[in-house]
Design goal:
The chain is mainly α. Helices cover 71% and strands 0% of the residues. The longest helix has 31 residues. It starts with a helix and ends in an 11-residue tail after the last helix.
Length: 421
């Protein structure tokens, strides 16, 4: 019973970090990510100074340099352009909050299971994501649950009532779709490359079923999730059929993949055919594919709107150092590339983008067995900026905290054992 409660607490901590939210009881206060980051900093200090079982990761030093330089450039852009838009001026703080906010969950996984492994991190992230997806449908269909959720999470209710879109327990729209996408990629990375996952039929079924459920409901929340579906399927194919050592269980994965896809498709077709609510949701989630079949062109309402949102600097100065404006609707665009460049120019954008190139390169070198996983994360960095200006530091944060022994196990240096104790 104690272990079950600890596992639930791990899920709560991951939700408070990865799917962070403002508290309804404290709408003007720090959000959950900030709260658990403070806990994480204190916990890390205890582990590092007293228990001496962890140390400050090397990647954090370089990451801090990138974050600090990006913050300085943004402050200069604000001062140079005489604005007061400090949206990204404190990115160094954002960096530290993201990194330390996952530490409590990582430390508790270590205490509960004896070590931290990639499959364990994946299982918990998948569970937290399924929770978001299921609660999204519950909130949309049950006024009582919606009211209960509003007592915990602070939402702009007028906005969501106006746009009539699904919101999950603590995430929605493209910000949710990006996080869903990263989890989908992680699922396929584990299925394609992790031996302990491939040896467990239960683990494979859990991950594959979760992949399709998150892909389906996630697209109902935000069609950005489609990017994660496509990238995830690509790396699974690369891992299973590309060059490199073959792992056992490939045939079983292929069979299970199509069986699970068939089952989910049957359920989807049934709901599409019998329930108007799900008919509309499925039409929205896969609008591009419906338009491709019915009209011969892959288009959606949002992509057509997006085409009108490409707004670029109008002079050389703005291209170099930006206009110092990000957080308002002054330029009428949601596109990440446009908003980031308009804020601090190519100077700021290049530094920001290079930080994510560095993270992908660093972890691909550190964990060569999973090089395609980090190539996929790098691809997602630049894909999501076509739609929204969020970054994906939240997924890298988990990789900061593996100990040297746990990293050796990830690389196969230590014989693998069961991932769940």
């Amino acid at each position: 019973m104690r272990k079950i409660l600890l596992m639930i607490l791990i899920g709560v901590l991951i939700t408070c970090s990865y799917y962070s939210f403002d508290l309804a009881a404290w709408p003007g206060g720090p959000n959950t990510k900030m709260i658990v980051a403070v806990i994480g900093l204190l916990w890390f200090g205890y582990d590092a100074l007293l228990r001496r079982n962890v140390q400050l990761p090397q990647v954090m030093v370089v990451g801090l340099l990138f974050a600090g330089l990006y913050s300085i450039i943004n402050i200069f852009a604000i001062e140079f352009n005489a604005t007061d838009d400090y949206s990204y001026a404190n990115y160094v703080t954002t960096f530290l909050v993201w990194i330390f906010s996952v530490y409590p969950a990582i430390a508790l996984i270590r205490l509960t299971h004896g070590e931290v492994t990639l499959p364990l991190v994946t299982y918990y992230l998948v569970a937290a994501t399924l929770f978001q997806c299921v609660t999204g449908l519950l909130i949309d269909n049950n006024p009582g649950f919606d009211e209960f959720n509003a007592k915990i999470v602070a939402w702009d209710m007028d906005f969501y009532d106006r746009i009539n879109r699904i919101r999950c327990f603590s995430t929605a729209l493209d910000f949710g779709g990006v996080r869903f996408s990263l989890v989908l990629i992680l699922i396929m990375g584990m299925l394609g490359r992790d031996e302990s996952v491939r040896k467990s039929k239960g683990a494979m079924f859990y991950l594959l079923l979760s992949f399709f459920v998150i892909a389906g409901i996630g697209n109902m929340v935000a069609r950005t999730t489609t990017a994660g579906v496509v990238v995830g399927l690509v790396i699974l194919v690369i891992y299973m059929f590309g060059s490199g050592p073959r792992l056992g269980g490939s045939r079983y994965i292929i069979v299970l993949f199509f069986v699970t896809l068939g089952l989910v498709s049957v359920v989807g077709v049934y709901l599409y055919s019998t329930e108007e609510y799900y008919y509309n949701l499925i039409r929205f989630a896969f609008e591009g594919f419906f338009n491709l079949v019915e009209n011969g062109e892959f288009t959606t309402d949002s992509t057509e709107v997006l085409e009108s949102m490409w707004k670029w600097p109008s002079d050389t100065k703005s291209w170099i150092i930006g206009t110092g404006i990000y957080g308002t609707w002054a330029y009428g665009t949601d596109i990440g590339y446009c908003r980031l460049i308009l804020y601090s120019g190519l100077t700021g954008f290049v530094v920001f983008a290079m930080s994510f190139v560095y993270y992908a390169y660093y972890f691909a070198r550190k964990y060569p067995r999973y090089v395609w996983l980090f190539v996929s994360f790098l691809a997602m960095t630049f894909i999501v900026w076509v739609k929204v200006s969020t970054d994906i530091l939240m997924i890298y944060a988990f990789f900061f905290w593996f100990t040297a022994e746990e990293s050796d196990r990830i690389n196969g240096i230590i014989p693998e054992e069961s991932t769940v104790s």
